[in-house]
Amino acid sequence: MKHILLILFILSSEKIYAQIFGRVVDEASGEALVGANLKWKNKSTSVFTNAYGLFSIENIKNDTLIVSFIGYKEQKLFAINESQKLNIQLQTQTLTLNEVEIKNTQIFSDVHPGKIKLSNAQIKGLPLLLGEKDLIKAFQLMPGIQEISEGSSSLSVRGGGKDQNLILLDESTVYNPNHLFGFFSTFNADPIQQAEIYKGAFPAQYGGRLSSVIDVKMKEGNTENFEVEGGIGLISSRLMVQGPLQKSKSSFLLSGRRTYADWLMKPFMNSREQTSYNFGDLNAKMNFYLNPNNRLFLSFYTGSDLLLQENNIPRGNSFLKDMTQLSWKNATGTLRLNTVLSKKLFQNASLVYSNYNMMYKENTEQPYKTPPVKLGMNLNSHLQDYSLKLDYDYFAAPNLQVKWGAMHTFRKFDPRDFEYYNTSNSEDNFKNSSPEANTNDGAVYVNFIGKRNSFFYENGLRLSYFPSLNLIKPEPRIMFGYKLPHEITVTGSYSKMNQYLHLVSNTGNGLPTDIWIPATASLKPGSSDILGMSASKNFKDEWKITAEAYYKWIKGSNEYKNGVNFLGVGQSNNLQAFNWDDVLTQGKSWNYGYEFSIEKSKGRFTAFGGYTLAWSISKFDEINNGRAFYNRQDRRHILEFSGRYALTKKLTFSSNFNFSTGNALTVPDGLYFTNDIYTSERDVYNSYNGFRAENYHRLDLGLNLKTKRGSWDFSVYNVYNRKNPYSYQVKNQIQQNGKVMNSTLNRQWLLPIIPSVSYNFKF
Amino acid sequence: MRFLLLFFSLCCFSSCVSVEKEIALPSHSVYGFISPSDTLISIYVVKVYPRNQEIYLDSKQHLKDAKVYLIKGSDTLNLAFNLTSNSYEAANKNFVTENTAYQLLIQKEELFLSAQTFVPPSFEMKIDTLRRDNSTYELRVKWNKKNNETFYKLGTNVEFDVRYWGEFKWDSGGGFWETNDLNQHQNLITSPIGSFAFVPQSTVATTTTSLTAYNKESFDYLKNQELLDNRTEFFERLEPPILQKSNINGDAVGFFGAFTKSEMKINFKK
Fold first, then answer.
1. What ipTM did this prediction achieve?
2. Fewer CB within 10 Å: C terminus or N terminus of chain A?
3. Which of A515, A550, A676 is the mutation pick for testing B, counting most B CBs within 10 A?
4. Most A-contacting residue of B18, B52, B55 (CB-CB within 10 A), to test interface
5. Cis bond upstream, residue A467 (ω within 30)
6. Which of B18, B227, B253 sits opposite A628 (nearest CB)?
C-alpha cells in the first residue's frame, strides 16, 4: 500500500508540460463523447476522452489539434493558448443527398483485446426477438459470448457461468438482468448511450466476477433541447423524454417501457380464473454543471416483473379465493460527482445503491367459514448493496495515463425468508428463514495506460479484500501490445479475478428463483486466471479482422449437489430452512478457445461476425464420479454474422445468422425396470452433461424504413422456423397391445418463426 | 501472413483435462428393498436398455440362472428365480431383522455384482386424535427417535364407507418426507398435525397411517425418486437434473435398500 501511495505521489507532482484540458461534447445535446480522439497534426501524441468525456493533452505551440469521433465532423483547433480549458463541441455528420455515407464506431477494439463496444445506434440497428432492441441479445451475437439456452438473456462469456458476469448500469450492479423468465433483458435500449463488455484483459478498475464485465452507460440527458422519442411494439411500448432543466447547465432524462401482455391476456380470461403477466422499466437521470470544475449526476433504474394468478371457486353463496403471485424487482441508484482537480487530474466520486428482491406468495381465503379462514405462505429473497467509489484519472505525461481508486461495498443478503400462516389454527403459524448475512468487500487499484512508439500497454494491480474470511487477494492485470507495419496489432494479456458471492441457480435461464449468497468458509470465493493473445489487422479503415486465443482457469466454480431440490416443489421440506453449503459443491473449470472476428464499419454495407472454436470443461469431486465433464455452455463451433445494408437513405435491410454446436445436457442414457410391471421403469444417467443437443441455427431478418418523424421496424425472428432444441424429454410409449415400448428422447423447442413490427418516433 | 503464423504458434494451448468420450452403459440393473415386515424377499435383475430402442416387453430380459445370495454376518440365504414373478425370491423367516447389515451377491459367469444395506431399528408409533368440528378430525403422529442415522417417511390416507377415498391433509409441512430434525418431546418426535373432513355422504371413515424408517442412502434414493416421479415438465426446467444414485457394485445400476415400517388403522364416526 505504501508503495502505491509513493507512486501516486510521484505521479501527482505535475510540471514539465503546458497542458490543455477539458471536455468533448455533442453540440446538439451537450452529451459527453466517450472515446473521442484528440491528436496533434505534426506529432504522434494523441489521447482519448475518458468515461466522462474529459481529456488532458500536452499543448504544442503552432500545431493543429484534430478532434474526431465517429459519426461527427472532425474539428481542427489552431494556436491554442497555453493551459487553456476547452469545451469542444462536435457536430453530427449529415448525410449527403445522393449517397449514403455510413461509418460506425468499431465494435472490436484494436488496442484492448477482448473488449467489445456497442453504441446506441448499433444496438438499435439489429433485428431481434419481437422487435425488442435489447442490449444483452445484441452482445449474444458477438464471438465468445453466447446465450446459455434458447431465447435466454443469460450470458456465457468464454465458457463462464451466468453468475460470473459483472453487469453495471451507471456503476450500479444489476443482479438479475432478466424479464419474462429470461426472454428479455432489463436493458431498454433507448436510454443507453453505450455499452462495453470485457471478456479478458480486464482493466484494474473492474473486479468482483470471474468471466466478464459489462459496463452500461446511460445517456446524460440533453442540456440544449427537449427531445421525445419512443416506440410502439408488439408486446411493449417505450417512451423517453429528455431536455434541459436549465439550458446548458443541467438536464434530465426519463425513459420508461412497459409490456401490455396482461391487457392482451385479459379478454381471454374468465372472471373466475385470471392470470396476468407484466414487466416494466423506468430509467431516470439528471445532470448538473455545478461550476466549471464540478458536475453532478444522479441516475436511477427500477424494473419489475409480476405474474399473478387468481381463482374464485364457488362455495355456496360465496367463493374460495385462491391467489398465487410471483414478482421480482431490480432497483439501482448512483450519485456521482465528477471533479476536475487540475489540468491533468480528474476525480470521480460515487455513491452506489443496488437492490434485488424476489417474492412468491400463495394465499387462500375461505370467507364462508365461521370465522373466515386465511391461509398461505410468503417466500422472499432479498439482496441489497451500498458502495462508495473513488476514482482518479491522471494524464501524467503525453503518453502515460494513470488511473487509481478505491471502492468498498456493503452487502446485505437475506436469501430465503419463509412464512406460513393459518388463521384457523395459530399453532400452525411459523416463520423459517435462512440466516441473513452481511458482508463487506472492496478493492484498491492502480492502472497505467501508456505507449512508446509502437509499443503500448495497460498494466495494473488490484487488491481486493473480503473481511468475512480475512482475505486480501492481489489481482494483477497485464496487457502489452505492439503495432506492426501494415496496420497489424498484436497483444498479450493476463488477468486475475476474484468473486466473493455465488449464485444458487437452477438452469441456464435467468429465473427469479436464482438466489445470491455470500462466499463462506466452505463455499469458498471463486477465482480465475485468464490468459489471452490477439492479432488484428485493419484494411483501409474499413475492414478489420481479429484473431484471439484465450485460456481461463477457474477455481471455485459451483454446481448443484446431486438431488438438490431447493425450490422444494411438491415436498414438505420446502418449509425447512437448509444450509446453502448443502446445496452447492465446488470444483474447477477450464475454458479455452480461439475467436476470429471480422468487421466492416464503413460504407452502405456494414457488418460484424465471427467464428469461435471453444471448450468448456469442469471437474467436481461430487459430480460424475469425479470425472471431468463438459459444461452445459460448452459449444465447440459457433459462427455468427450480423449485417446491415442501406438500400437508400430511408431504407435499411439487416440480418443476423447464428450457428452453434448443440450444448451439453444431462439426459437419461437408458432405462431399466425395478420389477415385472412395465410402468416401473427407471432412468439410467451414465454421465453428467454427456448428451450433446442438436445444432442450433437461426436466421433473423429486418427492414427499417425511416419516415419524417420516426421509423418503422419490420423483423422476422427465426425466418426458416428452425426448431432449435431447448431441452429434451423422455417419452415412453407402449405400442402393439402392450408388447413393445418405444423409449425416445424428444427435442423440446420454444421459439418458432416470429414476425414483428414496431414504430419508433422522435421529435 | 507471418504474423498470423506467429499468432497460431503462440496459441498452442491445450487443456489439462480430458473428457471421456463414451462411457459404456451398464449391462444389468438390480432392484430390491428388504424389510422385517415383508414375508417375501424379492430381488429383480434385469437388462439395461439403451434409449431410442424398441423394447419387447414380452421377452423382457431378466437375468435367469444366476446365483443370488443374501448374507447376514455368517448366515447366507439363497434366492431362487421365480418364473412367474421374474424375480429372485426367498421366504423371510426372520432372516431380515432390524438393526442389521446385509450384503447382496449376484453371480453369473463373468458377471459379479454386489451391494450392501442396513435395516434400521424398529420404533414405536402413537397417534393422538382430536375432533376439530362436526366433520373434521385431527391426527397427531408421534414416534420414538432411535438415532441420527434413521430417517422417516410418513404417509396417511382416508377411506370412507361410501367407497370414496378422501384426502388427508397435513396442515403444515406436507408430512410426506420427514427427517430427524423435528422437535423432540420426551423422546417422541411430533410430526406435523394433519386433518381430514368427512365427505357429505359418509358416516364412517378409516385412516391408515404408516411411518417408514430408512437408512440415509435408502431415504435419499426414494426421496429423489419421488421428486423425479412428481416432476412436471415446467419444474424440470426450474430445477437441476437429478441423477439417481446407484449402490450396486459391478457392471450394473440400481438400488438395494432396506426399511422398517409401522402402520396403524383408526376408525372414525361422523
1. 0.76
2. N
3. A676
4. B55
5. no
6. B18
Q: How confident is the model at residue A463 (pLDDT cuts 50, 70, 90)?
A: very high
Task: Please report residues of B whose CB lies closer than 8 A to that of A509.
Answer: 237
Mean pLDDT, rounded, for B153-181: 67
Amino acid at A599: E
Spatial separation of the C-alpha atoms in residues A510 and B46, rounded to whole Å: 41
* Pick from A37, A20, A40: nearest CA to A90: A37
Taking residue A6's Cβ as centre, other Cβ atoms within 10 Å add up to 10
Give pTM, 2 decimals: 0.81
Supply φ then ψ for residue B67, to 5 degrees: -95, 120
Neighbouring C-beta atoms of residue B226, cutoff 10 Å:
15
Interface test with A, best of B4, B11, B58 (most A CBs within 10 A): B11
Task: Please indicate whether, in this complex, the C-beta atoms of A506 and B3 are within 8 angstroms of each other.
Answer: no
**Residue B86 and residue A676: Cβ atoms within 8 Å?**
yes
Contact state of A563 with B48 under an 8 Å Cβ cutoff: no
Backbone angles phi, psi at A121, to 5 degrees: -65, -35
Residue A423 CB coordination number (10 Å): 16
Contact A90, A65 (CB under 8 A): no
Q: What is the pLDDT of residue B8?
A: 55
Which H or E run includes B76? Answer: strand B75-82
Does residue B214 sit in helix, strand or coil? strand
Sign of the CA dihedral running A155, A157, A161, A163: negative
Tell me if residue A323 falls in helix, strand or coil: strand
In this structure, which amino acid lies at residue A747? R
pLDDT tens for A513-552 read 677 889 988 889 999 999 999 999 888 778 889 999 999 9
Measured between beta carbons, which residues in chain B are less than 8 angstroms from residue A563?
A: 220, 223-224, 227, 242-245
Residue contacts between A and B (CB atoms, under 8 Å): 204
pLDDT in tens, A584-604: 889 999 999 999 999 888 888
Note whether A685 contacts B241, CB cutoff 8 Å: yes
3-state SS, residue B225: helix
Q: How many CB atoms lie within 10 A of CB A94?
A: 8
- CA distance between the termini of chain B: 92
